[in-house]
Structures are given as structure tokens and as C-alpha cells.
Amino acid sequence: MEEKVIELISNYQGIPKESITKQSDLVKDLGLSSYDVVDLSCEIEDKFHVEIPDTELTHLHTIEDLTNLLNK
Amino acid sequence: MLYIFNQFSLITEENLQEMIQEMPKERREKANQYKRIEDKKACAMAYYLLCQGLKEEYGIEKKPTFIYNEYGKPFLKENPKIFFNISHTKNIVVCAISNVEVGVDVEEIRDISPRVVEKMLNEKEKNEAKSEKDFTKYWTIKEAVSKCEGTGLANFDYKNIDYDKYDFDMRYYAEDNAYLTVCYKK
Asked: Are residues B159 and B91 in the same domain?
């Protein structure tokens, strides 16, 4: 799952996969804006057939957070 | 009052390091946490604009430090009756300072995902937003209101905003293809 999340974000932001780790911070390391986080969450919902409540977005800081949410 | 900077290319590495060194420890650590140079510049310039604004409008020379609400919104520790908010996009950083609660958002106009339109806009707004510029305007309005309220979008009923509770200042920056909204609580 972590690899799939990294690939998705790599494609979204145009950042090489090799430079993204599970500790990568979505904002500080990967430069995502608030719009990007919402857009990505919509893409993840479609791709992985899940629903991400808005209140969960405030808890999503790293790749690991995203992966853990999807693994739930 | 609004303080805006949109010439990131003019900030050299040397300028950036000088600005970061001038900041209080907590802010310096925050700037150094950012990996991308653009984010470091935005962080440093945002703090610089805040300092300039406080000096010009209130005669405050002392470098501000912050306290945060439960959602992470910063407030001035030493001046709780002066409110501020910051936003940045690729080449613009903006700082709003006010005697009332304030929120600001600036976004680059870009291709918009239909899913995000569906998620963020109510039916009336969907009918009115005909272009990426319109949608970006709505996005910045909603984000500015949620930042004014101190909750951020994720903890906010962004489809049902009572716009009469706020005053707005909305601007389009053609040079940067960006839209900016400032929201002041009435």
C-alpha cells in the first residue's frame, strides 16, 4: 500500500519516487498545498474505493499517515 | 491591511539565510524544516511581512512570537488583540493584519478536478462557477473564511457559509495567474 501511495504522489507532484519515504511530510517535504491535499484525497478515494472524512484530513501529515488510513 | 510579495526570484540564497537568521528560534526551525527552497522563502518572507506590518501599523518593533489554537492557527503571543493570517502560492506570499479576526488565501489558477468541484461547492456555487478562475475564487473564499474562523477547511462546513458574517477583499493577479481573498469577521 505504501508503494502505491508513493507512486500516486510521485505522479501528482512530479517528484521522483526515490525521494519520497514514509516519513515524508506532505506539506514540508513534498510541497502540497491545502488544495492539493483535498484533490489527492479525492483521487485516493476513487482509486482505492474508500471514503476519507474531511476531519481525517487534518491528521494526514506524512505518507505513513496516509498509508495507515488506507490500511484501516 | 495586506502585505504582499511576489518576486521570489529576487531573493538570493544569501538573502534567505540572512532572513532566516533574523527570525526567532521557533520560526527559524520551522523554515529549516521545509525541504523546498520556495517554501523556505515563503516562510521567511511571510514572517518578514508580518514584522514590517506590525512596525508600520502599530509601531511594534519587537519580533513577534506565536501561540496556536487547537487547529494550529497562530496568534500573536504578546498582542492578542492584533490578528494576522498568512498564505502563499508559487510566487506570492501575503500577510493580512487586522484588529478583527482575519483569514487569507492565495491560490494559483489551475485545471480543476470535477471531483473537487463536487466536493467543495454547493449547488448555487456550482451553477455560478463557469471557469477555473471562478472555482479558484470560491476556493480562496472558503479557505479564507475557514482560516478566519480558525478551524481550517477540514473542520468547517464549507458548503454552507453565511457570507453576511464577513467582509471580503478579493483580487486577481494576472501576472501570477493567481486569485487572493481576504476575509474579515464583521
From this structure: no
